[in-house]
Design a protein that fits this description.
The complex is a heterodimer. By secondary structure, chain A is of the alpha/beta class. Chain A is about 30% helix and about 15% strand. Chain A contains eleven helices and eight strands. Strand 2 of chain A pairs parallel with strand 15 of chain B, so a sheet runs across the interface.
Chain lengths: ~290, ~600
Amino acid sequence: MSSDVRFTDFKSDKQPTWCPGCGDFGTMNGMMKALANTGNSPDDTFVVAGIGCSGKIGTYMRSYALHGVHGRALPVGTGVKLANPDLEVMVAGGDGDGYSIGAGHFVHAVRRNVDMTYVVMDNRIYGLTKGQFSPTSREDFETSTSPEGTKQTPVNPLALAHAAGGSFIAQSFSSDAMRHTEIVEAAIEHDGFSLVNVFSPCVTFNDVDTYDYFRDSLVDLGDEDVDHDPTDPEQAKAVITDRETEYMGVLYQDEDSVPYGERMGIDEPMTDIPDGAPENATDLVREFY
Amino acid sequence: MADDLNWAIGGEAGDGIDSTGKIFAQALSRAGRHVFTSKDFASRIRGGYTAYKVRTSVEKVQSVVDRLDILVALTPRTVEENEDELHEGSVVIYDGERTSMSDFEPPEGVIGLPVPLQALAEEAGGAIMRNVVALGAVTAVADFPVENLGESLEKQFGDKGEKIVQNNKDAARLGREYVEDEYLDEYDFDYSLETTDNDYVLLNGDEAIGMGALAAGCRFYSGYPITPATDVMEYLKGRIEQYGGHVVQAEDELSAINMALGAARAGARAMTATSGPGIDLMAETFGLVATSETPLVITNVMRSGPSTGMPTKQEQGDLNMMLYGGHGEIPRFVLAPTTIAECFWKAVEAFNLAEKYQTPVYLTADLSLAVTEQTFEPETFDMDAVEIDRGKIVDEEDIGQWQDEKDRFQPHFPTADGVSPRALPGTEGGVHMSTGLEHDELGRRTEDTDVRVEQVDKRNRKVETAREEEDWEPREFGNPDADTLVISWGSNEGAMVEALDYLDERGVDVRFISVPYVFPRPDLTDAVEAADETIVVECNAQGQFADLMEHDTLTRVERITKYTGVRFKADELADDIAAALGETTEVSA
């Protein structure tokens, strides 16, 4: 990894088609800065994205990348990281991709604890399909498919990750560039699976979870006058399961986390193979005598 | 075929039927005899009828037949299930002291040999060894040296200590002596299982696929357990690690194929294996694999469908799914090995095709191949003959020639043969994105009409290139000049090759073409036109491969289909073919 990488090296020459003012601009900028700040280069970085507005991120960033099918970005990232542990793997998605169609994979990716960073652009709405409710939408949120509110409890992704044994659980806000970058950096540096749920407002279809709402209501756990130790499980549990207040920062980090690859003894890329069968392959045949 | 013996043990799931059968099969194989096994089993852990059948001969055996000579029956149902295969002089060994078998009467003409299996097992050290007592009894009836059983018992129980091995050997000896003392004077059993000095290996199709994958450099496997594909995963787990690889048990098949896709994009040779219901789920990602031009091997061990169907029964019903499955038009390869040995070689071929053409490859076996064990000469799996072709992987030195004027790597460059350069992540200068969206040569989304056509044509061109450059030849048996042509695909080859012998005995002359490639596949127009009659044999109801043959050759074909859940038996298949040709007499095994 070269040390002279700038964050703009992670920017492709394709102009984003996100709506002007979309939170995803800030989310992506923070990701690029965090990657550069942690000494990664586009050549050694693999970004996996799903479907939705968030899924377009692979096009606007410059790195090795796969833009996959809806909801399955985490399994792809798992395969990439295990096959080549030398790569920095970052998976990006939205609240629909991660917590609805991909919810099953989310839970298992968390508990498997493969060393990768999952950035979820949570805007609490389906934007690309033009304004239907999402799994994180509020119960009284009115959309074209919930004209009288969703009448369903929104999922708390942080609690979901916590219940699944998550080793790094964080939340950030796309418009707070500095804090967002810091939090993603911490996620990258964590040994294991890191969740960063990013409030990334949709300016077109969500007039409830707006920039103003988050600016006014978010409590930053990194503030000097807030006392929070993310390595203390009890303190972490209290802020993760708090349904009254929304927090920004690292809510929980298990400092003793051992990633899946290490537990399984995977330390070398699986990419190099011999020109023929492995040297001792005849032993495989001999087993069947 | 006096030396050809058909033996089975049957009882309830949980009775140790499988391991007992395996001990006997291994003993025969180690004694230099050919073995072909088959299993009847139910989708449950305990209870339900289950049986393990062994056919053995000094000659090569590659099919089941409709005949059973010696049956060890732990339950009355075992006899009922196999009554059709028992014949005059067949022997049923059972424990007359067992409550459920105390009233047992052998069918007409069948010799019943009550042996106190449990009592003798207890004498040897424990009731758990009653099946081994039965095996000992079998060696007396079949005139097979009991020492050979000893070697197999050592392999099976060696890690449990010398005492356990010795107890089992005693159990076998007691069973043998009981039959020798009680019955050999009374009956003249006409069996003699001679031994030879030949070395054989004994393995099933799932194991052959797994071994082929390892030989071919597969280093990443992700899967979700499903009958009858699980053996592939279980084979790889514990072995792939010594080559630096890994097996992930995924949360579902959607995840399994996406993990394998990720590993393949990272540059590892990757595979997933599943059966019908899993193939349905994987269809979602199949188009992405092809569109992003990712080399991936997807093994489908077919079972009886649709839906949950008959999960432990044989069928070749997924042909159309593999050939056409997935929305849109998806270039692919579909390989269908015809024997257990070919499962190994086609696995190697599948990995090479996947990487050379950056295209998904279906490797399909079926339940018959997967859970059947067969003996082969070890040289059949000649590791020195394994060749690896990774295709157009470019390194940092060559990458410049595949960059555009802005130094951007072009992973989907529309080359003449359709195959683009491939830069593995980590390669300097090779940064690119791939996507399931239609894209340009850089991998960027586009809806430009010209680029769309260019990229679709490029991906399809890979298949055309492969059609030209690779070997898609079928396998030929029988008389090439015969008026009757039989065609089959996949696992029916063994039964059909043996059926040729039965047909030959009756003066029925047949040319048999066995097709291991579903797509691309050989053009059989000339062969079909040269024949007076063409019969397509397959294990499904609708004749999916027969449809393809009619489509390819514009000629109507006869269809012999079987969808009972049981594979073709050689003698039965010979009868079916004779009947289709207007012959009436039955053959006998």
